Structures are given as structure tokens and as C-alpha cells.
Amino acid sequence: MSSFKETKAITIGAVSEITGLSERQIRYYEDKELISPSRTSGGTRKYSFNDIEKIVEVSKKIKKGIPTFKIKQETTDRITEKSQNIKERMLMGQINAAFKRNV
Amino acid sequence: MSSFKETKAITIGAVSEITGLSERQIRYYEDKELISPSRTSGGTRKYSFNDIEKIVEVSKKIKKGIPTFKIKQETTDRITEKSQNIKERMLMGQINAAFKRNV
DNA sequence: CGTGTAAGGAATTCTGACACG
DNA sequence: CGTGTAAGGAATTCTGACACG
Predict the structure, then answer these.
(1) Would you give per-residue pLDDT tens digits along chain B (103 residues)?
(2) Distance to chain A for B35, nearest Cα, Å
(3) What's the Å distance between residue A31 CA and nucleotide C15 C1'?
(4) Measured in whole angstroms, how far is the alpha carbon of residue A91 from the centre of its chain?
(5) From A13, B49, B60, B77, which residue has the greatest number of CB atoms within 10 Å?
(6) d(CA A80, nearest CA chain B) in Å
(7) By C-alpha distance, which of B39, B21, B15 is closest to A7?
(8) Percent of chain A at pLDDT exceeding 90
(9) How many A×B Cβ pairs under 8 Å?
(10) Distance in angstroms: CA B40, C1' C13
(11) Which chain B positions have a beta carbon within 8 Å of A40's beta carbon?
(12) What three-state secondary structure class fits B45?
């Protein structure tokens, strides 16, 4: 989970080189809240390899004509699904516990 | 082999933050040829996560009192061992091939 | 030998804005 | 809407050197 893939240490210049996207595009995605790099104390953006993967996916979707708010929505939906799963699992846990108590 | 771990994209500032070592130390290791980051066209050093791991190991050895030339030697030896293994494997391959031919 | 530091310069990044469509 | 660009400033990094031990 928290391996190097999640470590935010890459500057926008390197991300631009790796992805082939312009720095403008990468900053724009952040503006639209599709990615959230961390910052150094000086304000320089730092990205993780996970961020880079997200950026590539986002750019593909944009190329397909999907507007940024839709892309953001998809990500949010995905998170909501996860939360839902967690809720469900917690509920199941409670049910199981209650069941065992009554056996 | 060539995953993100090998991707040289991290600036010295981030490496310093991650490892807790000073930029001076990190540059010194390069001077002693213990690591070899790539460079941007402008000359800025770019490290990979593998480089970072190496840097940490190197600093530990230095802390133990091992001189840099010894550390470099160890790395070179390791590479030599690998080459040796490859040579051996190639030799075995030839032997096996020759054996099959004669069966 | 390994590392700190001040020095001056160059490369990198930042923001807000204007432009196009 | 998504992206290019020129603008001015600030943060980051670079090298070579002096210092200590």
C-alpha cells in the first residue's frame, strides 16, 4: 500500500517527460481536482508513480472527449463504492457477531 | 526489471528528504562512483528508488567505518559474481547442447 | 576521508493572466 | 473547455572551493 508507488517525490518536469504531457496539462488536472500532488515547503509539486498513472488515464479520457467533471465523478464514484463495501463489511461483521452470541 | 523502481525521476532534494541524508553526502557518493543518477538536459540529477536504496546502504556502510573505495569494490565484486554466474550458465548450456548432440 | 558551508550562477517551478475556440 | 504562452519572481540545484580533522 505505501510502497514507492505512493511516494510523492517526482517533480512536474519529470512527470511531463515520463507522460509526454505538458506541465500546463498536468497542473490543469490538479486544478480540476483529478490529482493531488503534495508540495515541498517551497511550493514545488511532488508526484508519485500512482499519480502518474492517474494522470495518464485522465489524459486518455480527456482525449476521448470526456469532460473533467465527469472524470472526477468517476473517481468519486469509485471511492464511494469502496466506502460502501466497507460499510457492508462492517454490517456483516455486526450481524455475524450477533449471530454467534445467539448460538 | 525496468519498473518504476528503476525510473530515474527523483531530484536530490526529495532523495535527501526521504533518506535523511544531506545533499552534500548524496553528491559525494556519486563523486566516489557509488551511485550514478541520470541528468536532465540542464544538469539536474535524477535518482530512482533503486538508487535511493543503494544510497541508504552506502550510508550505513560508511557509518560502520567502511571506506568508500571498499564499498565500491563490494558492488563491483557483486557484479563480477553475477557475470561469473552468467558465464557458468552459458558454459552449462554449451555442455548440455553438446551432450544432446552425442546422444 | 567524509561532510559542512558560503558564493554566484543556471535550471526548474510557480502563479495569474491573456488568448483561442 | 482544455491548453499554449510570455512574465516576473521564488525555490531548487549545480559546481568549485575552503575548512575541519
Answers:
(1) 668 899 999 999 999 999 999 999 999 999 999 999 999 999 999 999 999 999 999 999 999 999 999 999 887 766 665 555 554 555 454 545 444 444 4
(2) 18
(3) 12
(4) 26
(5) B49
(6) 29
(7) B15
(8) 66
(9) 31
(10) 15
(11) 13
(12) strand
* A60 residue type, one letter: K
Cell of residue A97, nine digits: 457477531
* Digit-coded pLDDT (tens) for A3-19: 889 999 999 999 999 99
Q: How large is the greatest C-alpha to C-alpha distance in chain A, in angstroms?
A: 63
Show the cell assigned to A8: 510523492
Integer CA distances (angstroms), A21 to A44, A56, A65, B60, in order: 18, 9, 17, 38
CA pseudo-torsion sign A70, A73, A75, A78: negative
Joined together, the cell numbers standing for residue A26 give 498536468
